[in-house]
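During the reporting period the student researcher (J.K.) took over the structure-prediction task from the postdoctoral fellow and processed the backlog of single-chain submissions. One of the processed entries is reproduced below for the supervisory committee.
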Amino acid sequence: MSDPTSSTYHPTRPPSLNYSIASGRRRFWVALFFVLIFIEAGVLPLILFYSIRWGAHLSNTTNLAIITAVVGTYSSYKFAVRSWYLFISDRGHQRRPLGAGRFGPDAFTIQISIAMTAFFAPLIVGSSLTPASVHLVAISLSCFIIVFCFPLLITSFWPHKLKMPFRVSSMPPWTGLPPAVYTIVEDIVAVDGGGCVEFRQAWRIRYEHSTRMRHIIRVTSLCWGATGCALAAALIAIAWNTSDDVGYGLGWGIPWIWAIVSAAITVWWVRKQLGRESREWAQPGAHVVLNLHIRQSAEEEKVARRVSMQNETHRGA
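J.K. obtained the following structure tokens:
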């Protein structure tokens, strides 16, 4: 079990996460990923739809068939690479959730799989009909957003109250779930970002010991979940009650504006809160421990001790 009594923080400084997106070429690869995803599921669907519709004057069936053939190529490749890291790679044990077996998926894998299914279902069905349904294809991104953001919303309403009969990332069955942003950050950084089990341990320690970090995670979960579900529901209603051109353009364009603006606000706000966390760390109530009750193997316990020792080293420095 994770140990809430261990001295893993400095009296005047929060525990280090031992990870930086600015190190090496991480910032470049993160930027490249988002640019390619934006092109695949944002730019191309809009350019192809209107250029083929207004320029080539092809039928909606042909138009949407071309778009369906293009969308999902890069994201499917990245999902396959992620699965390789988790389940097949010889070093997969270093990236898997704490306490999970070889074929134990992390929460993000399950969440993104269900969301991608919700995305591709209306896309494929809508383009396969004769004639094709522009309205159905227009709600693809909105369906993805609702399925992805709903767990963020409900876990932020009842943090550490909802329990599942199966493992959720590092959280054992029947353990109160933290707001979903916690597992999203843990899984993405550990698997896709190469932070591995060291980051999972450092992330656990920081969350367990910092009331400010728990506040950050809950607020970001709530804001992304609430705004995403509300926006997606509105876009679905608009898609079915407007013309093809308007519904399709809004359905594939507005979600990206929402995502970019929300990401910018999140980065600004989180940086502000982290600065506040650091300034207030020595004050009473800043590091009240909340035990996540995470079960760990012997090897993972060794990593936890090593992370704690690194925090002690920072303390000495």
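The committee noted the following: The radius of gyration is 22 Å.
J.K. will present the remaining backlog at the next meeting.
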